[in-house]
Design brief:
alpha/beta; Rossmann fold; Helicase, Ruva Protein, domain 3; 2 domains; 7-stranded mixed sheet; 13 helices; binds S-adenosylmethionine; rRNA_Ade_Mease_Trfase_CS; cytoplasm; RNA-binding
Length: 275
Amino acid sequence: MTELPTLRESLEQHGLMAKKAFGQHFLLDLNITRKIVRLGGPFDGDTVIEVGPGPGGLTRALLESEAAHVIAVEKDSRFLELLGELNEVFGDRFEVIEGDALKVDEAQLLADRKLSPQAHIVSNLPYNVGTPLLIKWLTGPWRPKSLTLMFQLEVALRVVAPVGDDDYGRLSVISQILCDASKIMDLPARAFTPPPRVDSAVVRLIPKADRPAPAVIKNLEKVTAAAFGQRRKMLRSSLKSLGGEVLLDKAAIDATLRAEQVGPDGFLRLATALS
Ligand code: SAM
């Protein structure tokens, strides 16, 4: 088996430096990437789609796991040659695709390769597109088997925040209605090369089996946008354009509450009532 150079050596050999525009902050310590994969798994016999492999630290850890296939989507073409070297060690279990993860149709990607439509997402996310990517995977037509995602700490806290918490908001409601979500690891900024300005955390999300209908998910986006857009106001005022007290009455929610006082179940009732 070919011996791989260290990640630092790989970057040097290919003359690669991190680019700010692509949100590049690399994990070059394989002990850390192996831990993320261990906590995010098991991936036994499954396909993992990795977004933004960069120099491939997380990719290597995924390929060392029991995952049957790893498909990596990278926007920065400079990394394709370096990542292609992984095939010399891991053969056709690994494939790298140049593309923008926001535009990738995961169901099609898997169908084209005759792979099961069930696959996991693992990513040390580019911070500038972390939230839109999460919303795409949560509310889009393709449902991942699990998501293991590195976010800036502030976003990770919003995903898992309980009702009443300062961080509780749209992202908490949507994530927690559609998934079981937990923060599984904290990472200081110094763990990355170059270090970002803020600390990070890994969140693991497992989509729930009883997913609401697509129309209810759309309504959920509307209701949470209106309610948290004016989070200090009472719901009878912030939800006025969506039906105000009539809607709140239908969903059995006290009209004098504020958005941050209503749990995910309450928002689900509001989204269901808004037909
Ligand atoms: N996974 C690597 C690691 O942990 O060292 C790199 C993580 S770095 C924070 C984010 C990676 O995502 C970069 O490689 C960047 O080029 C890539 N990227 C940025 N935007 C992307 C997009 N829209 N689609 C796919 N990859 C993207």
